[in-house]
Amino acid sequence: MRISQCRQEDLELLDQHLPFRGAAAQYEARYARQREGRATVLVAWRERRPVGSCEVRWEGCEAPEVRAAHPGCPEVNGLSVWPEALRSTGVGTALIREAERLAAERGARAIGLGVEKNNPRASALYGRLGYRASVPYLDCWSYQDGAGVAHRVADACVFMVKPL
Ligand SMILES: CC(C)(COP(=O)(O)OP(=O)(O)OC[C@H]1O[C@@H](n2cnc3c(N)ncnc32)[C@H](O)[C@@H]1OP(=O)(O)O)[C@@H](O)C(=O)NCCC(=O)NCCS
After folding, report:
1. What is the pLDDT of residue 21?
2. What's the pLDDT at 132?
3. For residue 96, what are the domain limits?
4. Which of 87, 100, 80, 83 minimizes the C-alpha distance to 163?
5. pLDDT per residue as tens digits for the range 5-53
6. At what angle do helices 120-128 and 91-105 cross, to 10 degrees?
7. What is the CATH number of the domain that holds 131?
8. Which residue ranges does the record assign to the N-acetyltransferase domain (predicted)?
């Protein structure tokens, strides 16, 4: 497996292989933040196929309560591995480790990530990697369904932090 920073020409392949609706628009937005220097989008590859990704947001988590508690703490956002058959084979861990390496290289003293309160398997993984639960918050986001109707969602999450 190889991990690299997302390039413009990767966006089409990501769109082909990502299983969820709205992925193309989401990756365009992530890539735009990377171009502005606000984020780094990491992609994990098996052969020539993208099998996972995450966005390291250098400005940190959007939730005000998290920013207040951890000012300047970069966030690993949108971590995902697919297809499901490839989960639990080390891809997520490799993406997190690369995000940590990049954050340390930039002089960050800690890195964090948000996890939904009802995702105990992901929390367990982050705990094993050294992340500790810190701030409960609501992750507010929106998406458009196939009919073009906008939906707003608020997920109950916990921000977990690891010193670097
Ligand atoms: C969570 C996730 C990113 C971890 O990546 P991964 O490549 O599967 O993780 P690794 O192989 O490095 O580590 C394995 C651990 O990940 C966790 N994990 C595995 N599958 C998972 C799943 N479907 N959902 C949540 N956590 C999962 C478990 O703790 C697992 O340990 P175990 O095999 O001993 O139970 C990935 O499983 C995934 O995309 N899950 C669905 C989406 C999700 O929950 N994203 C997390 C957002 S915070």
Report:
1. 62
2. 98
3. 2-163
4. 100
5. 999 999 989 988 877 666 788 899 999 999 999 999 999 999 999 999 9
6. 50
7. 3.40.630.30
8. 1-164
